[in-house]
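hi!! sorry for the late reply, been swamped w classes. u asked for the two structures so here they r. pasted raw, havent cleaned anything up. first the sequence of the first protein and right below it the tokens
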Amino acid sequence: PPNAHDIEAPVRRRTNAGRAALTDGITIRHATPADAEAIARLRIESWRQSYRGLVPQASLDALNVEASVATWRRVLAAPPGRASVFVAEADGRVVGFASGNRLDEAKHDCDCELSAIYLAREVQRRGLGRRLVGTVAADLASRGATAMLAWTLAGNAPSRRFLEALGAAPV
């Protein structure tokens, strides 16, 4: 996982228009049960945008906000240390989230996994995903994790590029 210092500095990159894109003004914090609905809605919205053509449309249409909210409430109400879930907030609105957890048994020599990383379209490609993943990784590392596994669909080229840019290698 990235070191804690990897997540503290503002991340700058050039946009297509040549302007510096910053994640300043976006706060990353631990998610709480009160964030369950925003997380569920963002996850489903992201799935429907990102996985169109990769996942059967009927599966995307069947995604249910209420069921997802209930799941996220359980995850976020779990005892501390079970899951590591952080949200990115801008102007009081959740615009991204990432979650990870320790694995009961190591997989591919990894003892934790990145279970989700989703951003609202308007904040993508600004370094926020890197900050969220770094925050989850640092939190898991503080609890003894040493190597993180991340899953993505083979056909999801943007996700693969993002994870590879973070240092991930296909297994």
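now the second protein. again sequence first, tokens right under
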Amino acid sequence: ASTFGKLLIIVALLWMVSVIMTSFSTGKVAGLALALFGIPFLFLAMKLVNKPKEARIRATQTYYALTSRRLLIIDDYKKKSVQSFNIQKLDFLERTENSDGTGNILFAKKQVTSISSSNREDAPSPKAVTHDVKIGFTDIREAKEVEREIQNLLHSSQPQANQACVKSEDK
């Protein structure tokens, strides 16, 4: 996103400069209004350039907590929120781990509905597609240790027959 954003900034600035120079060289000042068409692209490009920085800031302001009864995801970025998940009601437990020990621990699902539409004449009417998005602790250090702690809490808080399905994947 950042590279594309930088390219878009260059294109928008070149567009605006060339329109301004052409307007002044031909003496038609009304042509300057065309330069305004570059402004939306400039804003879009700046948003794309800032996406990686925004993701880093969000990551530093997201906190994960593990208690004897709950898993918490605390988001202290812009829209502050706390998500709480009862350990006894986890849908599943899935770990993905990178070679450096960092990884993700996913344990809940949220259904998201997307509405797709097409402008083609032969296309069917817009349809809603529902899919699951997995929720959990992302990009954490020592993912295997965190998974082990959650499993210990699962074993100590639930009868054996009601345990969550545990799935681990190493990358």
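hope this helps!! also noticed smth abt the second:
Residues 50 and 56 are 10 Å apart (CA to CA).
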